[in-house]
């Protein structure tokens, strides 16, 4: 079953490569409970097939970085990029994209959270195994308020600009 507007995010964890050690977060991969992380926050979430892939690197992540200030001006507390990759790859990709401190690069290494959302996709024919469909959503206090799911191979509705318009 695919998550829909009005649903609460499923239970699960995501990992993030932390660049700077702080209280409660060590340097390197840290695992977070999604429910606890989303509590009391408005979060722009976008999911994509993979780190360092063409559309994801050239358009999807850069769009959220470029529009981060406008999203935050509309009340968004955090921006998450979720991909079925390990936290080391997501950390390296975040550094390469200059996303550190702007977009949280959240790893779903085994696709468990993506599957719980019902947004997994079979990319085996490309040699990539189970991946995420391309989507964006606005989550408030753990509840989905907007969901923009792309058709396979498309990049039309999961961009930052669409989510910004929905926040107006």
UniProtKB/TrEMBL annotation:
It comes from Noviherbaspirillum album. This is Glutathione-dependent peroxiredoxin. Gene3D superfamilies: Glutaredoxin. Its EC number is 1.11.1.27. SUPFAM superfamilies: Thioredoxin-like. The keyword Plastid does not apply. It holds the Pfam family Redoxin. Keywords: Antioxidant, Oxidoreductase, Peroxidase, Redox-active center. Residues 3-168 form the Thioredoxin domain. Thiol-specific peroxidase that catalyzes the reduction of hydrogen peroxide and organic hydroperoxides to water and alcohols, respectively. Plays a role in cell protection against oxidative stress by detoxifying peroxides. Belongs to the peroxiredoxin family. Prx5 subfamily. InterPro entries: PRX5-like, Redoxin, Thioredoxin-like_sf, Thioredoxin_domain. It comes from the Bacteria. It catalyses: a hydroperoxide + 2 glutathione = an alcohol + glutathione disulfide + H2O.
């Amino acid at each position: 079953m695919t998550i829909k507007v009005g649903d609460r995010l499923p239970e699960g964890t995501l990992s993030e490569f932390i660049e700077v050690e702080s209280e409660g977060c060590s340097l390197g991969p840290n695992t977070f409970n999604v429910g606890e992380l989303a509590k009391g926050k408005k979060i722009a979430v976008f999911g994509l097939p993979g780190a360092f892939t063409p559309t994801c690197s050239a358009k999807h992540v850069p769009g959220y970085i470029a529009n981060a200030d406008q999203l935050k001006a509309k009340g968004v507390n955090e921006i998450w990029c979720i991909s079925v990759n390990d936290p080391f790859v997501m950390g390296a990709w975040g550094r390469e994209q200059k996303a550190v401190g702007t977009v949280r690069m959240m790893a779903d290494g085994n696709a468990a959270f993506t599957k719980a959302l019902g947004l997994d996709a079979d990319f085996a024919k490309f040699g990539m195994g189970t991946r995420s469909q391309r989507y964006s959503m606005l989550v408030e206090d753990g509840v989905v308020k907007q969901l923009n799911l792309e058709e396979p191979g498309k990049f039309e509705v999961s961009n930052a600009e669409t989510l910004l318009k929905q926040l107006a």
